[in-house]
């Protein structure tokens, strides 16, 4: 028997229990034989805080319009008779929709839902993040381009130079009648969606010709905590290194990565990347081809690598000594056990001689305790063919695993040679190791994804992306010991990768092919199938070495350090261009010192210290710049010039090495800058004392010396003293408990911060 909905029934079926509809957050109206006329829009509009609504297993032929429910996140109307999803547009905050077993809904309706609901992530119990973003941006750009081309080719010429609104309406009327049938794209199974989308794009084009502005805003949330009549809306990232080579000219002593030179084509049995929506992704574990129904996104089959070792590994320890005279005596007796390393609170004599900071410089007035460190482990973990005599493999990149709970993580991922390792900094054990024969990994990055089990239960997982010489992004779930997918991202080696801080599936990859590509890697399902799509291509004029989304506008701008300068791109996905060149190039004071024998345009390192402050350096510069992103971007001379002077606020004194591609890093909190050098030292700058001035944009004229310099401890391995090592990169965990340094001698140095 059909049941009419009343206020009392809604309160009885809703949670939390309350006497007021506006307090409800969850409402279950399943199996009530409801029809469309039973849903009272006036009653539903009072549930201004409702987040979950279950209308499954009823007799609904449609969903009524104007229901309100501005903050509805989850909607289930499966097993009904609904034949149209466009009404879902009234719920702009929907993140999950279930409408299986509605006989008249097709794959075209899935695509419509992706367009109508900007926050939709799950559809019919499957993660559709990657597909949705592809439909919203890549597909939209392609259809917009085709609609514009059709207009310009067939109708634009019919308009006089200054047409009246009446003439525009007359010509555009013919255009609107024909465009839906003439503009075609994609498989026949999406014909209904394509026609629907083309008509919307055409309507917007005509509106723009008539000078009409259509709003496309989203309501912004403000919780209704009291029983009021209405909800208020409030606007609520060519490394090329070998051994040190001294040259007479002031040019970088480049260290070439083996088999990965800039101009060397990496030979892979793969097709060229397709343009637009037909990008070809090679999956080593599967030779599946795209079918017509799989256009725009491809399901990648998981692959368990036999090289992913799941048990803790015993590493070859590199023992250290702290005082050279004392150690020389002990070295004759055998190996040394790890002990405390001397961490200098000021530069060495040679360093002090080079500093430009005078004795009149203000003393550090910060009450913060100075950094003290002790060494924990010096490890060989990336030995080629498990050769313990391998002190030649270059180690390139490291990153700490994100926290999944309140407890800080002590795990760090490292890459170099043909392997990626996950190491426990406290114990020094290699927890996981992933190997690829003949590969050489140059870069890695972490992201946290929300994965659903077969039963639909959600859990967060940490995924590690790694890339290198083969141009392939390998997606690894270290906790379960699985490399679940590979994306053929570039035709040449991948030089750098980073995830978006706001979109957990968005991955930027930079390559020797002089491109930065934005990928949506999707979220794996319970069987580790996933969808990946290419969203954007940024053309560079040289190899990108570091990429960083601008913290103040992470979805709008991407800053990159390249072999010929520092550039910024507009990465807003709503813009029509799917391939873009840089917006602005930043010039630095060091450029003025260039001559025919010197080139300071190799900006080899870049990181943000805050939302506005950028830390970067050029090869051979001998110092590190701190500059303001906002003030620098505002200095752009003209749109045609595309150059701007970097607004430098401070300069940090650093090594005078000729060696490029030594990466700096910043701490997540505490205003620390860290950078290694070619003598195995780690330079540390505590900027807390000048934090206020930097935030206010007050320049510091004096060259600032490092707060601390950690000397290379000259480890002893097999009773032989190792020489100086080059520290390629350093990293600190967000809790500032561990400092990790990677070297060119296959040695990972781990210090504990006391």
UniProtKB/TrEMBL annotation:
Residues 9-201 form the Leucine-rich repeat and WD repeat-containing protein 1 LRR domain. It is found in: Chromosome, Centromere, Kinetochore; Chromosome, Telomere; Cytoplasm, Cytoskeleton, Microtubule organizing center, Centrosome; Nucleus. Keywords: Centromere, Chromatin regulator, Chromosome, Cytoplasm, Cytoskeleton, DNA replication, Kinetochore, Leucine-rich repeat, Nucleus, Repeat, Telomere, WD repeat. GO terms for molecular function: chromatin binding. The keyword Disulfide bond does not apply. WD repeats lie at residues 487-521. Residues 370-753 form the Leucine-rich repeat and WD repeat-containing protein 1 WD domain. One of its GO terms (biological process) is DNA replication. Residues 236-246, 338-349 have a biased composition (Low complexity). Residues 211-230, 323-332, 359-371 have a biased composition (Basic and acidic residues). Residues 247-257 have a biased composition (Basic residues). It holds the Pfam family WD_LRWD1. One of its GO terms (cellular component) is nuclear origin of replication recognition complex. Required for G1/S transition. Recruits and stabilizes the origin recognition complex (ORC) onto chromatin during G1 to establish pre-replication complex (preRC) and to heterochromatic sites in post-replicated cells. Binds a combination of DNA and histone methylation repressive marks on heterochromatin. Required for silencing of major satellite repeats. May be important ORC2, ORC3 and ORC4 stability. Component of the ORC complex. Belongs to the LRWD1 family. This is Leucine-rich repeat and WD repeat-containing protein 1. It comes from Eleutherodactylus coqui.
């Amino acid at each position: 028997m059909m049941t009419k909905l009343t206020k009392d029934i809604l309160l009885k079926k809703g949670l939390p229990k309350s006497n007021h509809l506006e307090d409800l957050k969850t409402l279950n109206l399943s199996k009530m034989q409801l029809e469309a006329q039973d849903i009272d829009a006036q009653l539903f509009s009072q549930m201004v805080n409702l987040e979950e609504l279950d209308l499954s297993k009823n007799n609904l032929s449609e969903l009524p319009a104007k229901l309100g429910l501005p903050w509805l996140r989850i909607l289930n109307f499966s097993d009904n008779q609904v034949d149209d999803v466009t009404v879902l547009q009234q719920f702009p905050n929907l993140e999950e929709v279930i409408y299986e077993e509605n006989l008249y809904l097709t794959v075209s309706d899935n695509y419509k839902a992706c367009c109508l609901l900007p926050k939709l992530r799950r559809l019919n119990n499957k993660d559709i993040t990657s597909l949705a973003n592809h439909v919203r941006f890549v597909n939209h750009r392609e259809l917009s381009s085709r609609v514009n081309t059709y207009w310009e080719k067939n109708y634009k010429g019919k308009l006089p130079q200054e047409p009246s609104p009446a003439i525009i309406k007359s010509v555009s009327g013919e255009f609107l009648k024909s465009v839906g049938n003439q503009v075609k794209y994609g498989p026949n199974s999406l014909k209904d969606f394509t026609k629907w989308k083309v008509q919307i794009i055409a309507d917007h084009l005509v509106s723009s010709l008539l000078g009409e502005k259509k709003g496309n805003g989203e309501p912004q949330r403000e919780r209704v905590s009291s029983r009021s009549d209405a909800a208020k809306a409030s606007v609520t990232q060519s490394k090329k290194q070998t051994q040190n080579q001294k040259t007479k000219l002031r040019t970088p002593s480049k260290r070439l990565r083996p088999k990965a030179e800039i101009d060397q084509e990496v030979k892979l049995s793969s097709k060229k990347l397709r343009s637009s929506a037909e990008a070809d992704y090679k999956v080593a574990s599967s030779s599946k081809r795209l079918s017509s129904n799989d256009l725009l996104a491809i399901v990648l089959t998981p692959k368990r690598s036999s090289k992913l070792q799941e048990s803790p590994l015993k590493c070859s320890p590199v023992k250290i000594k702290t005082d050279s005279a004392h150690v020389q005596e002990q070295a004759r007796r055998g190996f040394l056990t790890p002990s405390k390393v001397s961490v200098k609170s000021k530069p060495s004599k040679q360093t002090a001689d080079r500093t430009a900071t005078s004795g009149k410089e203000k003393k550090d007035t910060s009450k913060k305790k100075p950094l003290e460190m002790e060494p924990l482990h010096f490890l060989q973990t990336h030995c080629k063919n498990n050769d313990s005599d391998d002190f030649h493999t270059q180690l390139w990149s490291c990153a700490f695993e994100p926290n999944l709970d309140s407890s800080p993580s002590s795990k760090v991922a490292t890459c170099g040679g043909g392997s990626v390792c996950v190491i426990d900094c406290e114990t020094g054990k290699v927890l996981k190791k992933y190997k690829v024969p003949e590969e050489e990994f140059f870069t890695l990055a972490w992201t946290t994804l929300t994965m659903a089990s077969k039963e639909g239960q959600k859990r967060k997982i940490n995924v590690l992306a790694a890339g290198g010489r083969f141009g392939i992004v390998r997606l690894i779930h270290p906790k379960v010991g699985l490399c679940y997918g590979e994306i053929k991202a570039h035709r040449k080696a991948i030089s750098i990768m980073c995830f978006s801080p706001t979109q957990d599936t968005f991955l930027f990859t930079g390559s020797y092919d002089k491109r930065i590509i934005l990928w949506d890697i999707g979220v794996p399902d319970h069987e580790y199938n996933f969808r990946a799509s290419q969203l954007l291509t940024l053309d560079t004029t040289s190899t990108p070495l570091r990429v960083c989304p601008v913290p103040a506008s992470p979805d709008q701008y991407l800053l990159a350090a390249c072999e010929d300068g520092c550039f910024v791109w507009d990465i807003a996905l709503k813009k029509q261009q799917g391939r873009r060149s840089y917006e602005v190039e930043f010039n630095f004071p060091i450029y003025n010192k260039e001559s025919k024998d010197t080139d300071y345009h190799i900006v080899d390192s870049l990181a943000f210290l805050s939302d506005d402050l950028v830390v970067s350096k050029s090869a051979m510069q001998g110092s590190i710049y701190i500059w303001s992103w906002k003030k620098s971007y505002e200095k752009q001379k003209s749109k045609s010039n595309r150059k701007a002077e970097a607004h430098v606020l401070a300069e940090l004194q650093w090594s005078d090495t000729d060696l490029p591609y030594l990466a700096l890093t910043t701490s997540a909190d505490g205003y620390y800058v860290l950078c290694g050098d070619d003598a195995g030292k780690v330079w540390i700058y505590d900027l807390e004392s000048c934090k206020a001035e930097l935030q206010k944009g007050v320049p510091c004229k004096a060259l600032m010396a490092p707060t601390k310099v950690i000397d290379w401890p000259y480890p002893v391995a097999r009773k032989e003293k190792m020489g100086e090592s080059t520290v390629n990169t350093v990293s600190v965990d967000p809790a500032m408990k561990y400092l990790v340094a990677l070297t060119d001698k296959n040695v990972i140095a781990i210090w504990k911060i006391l």
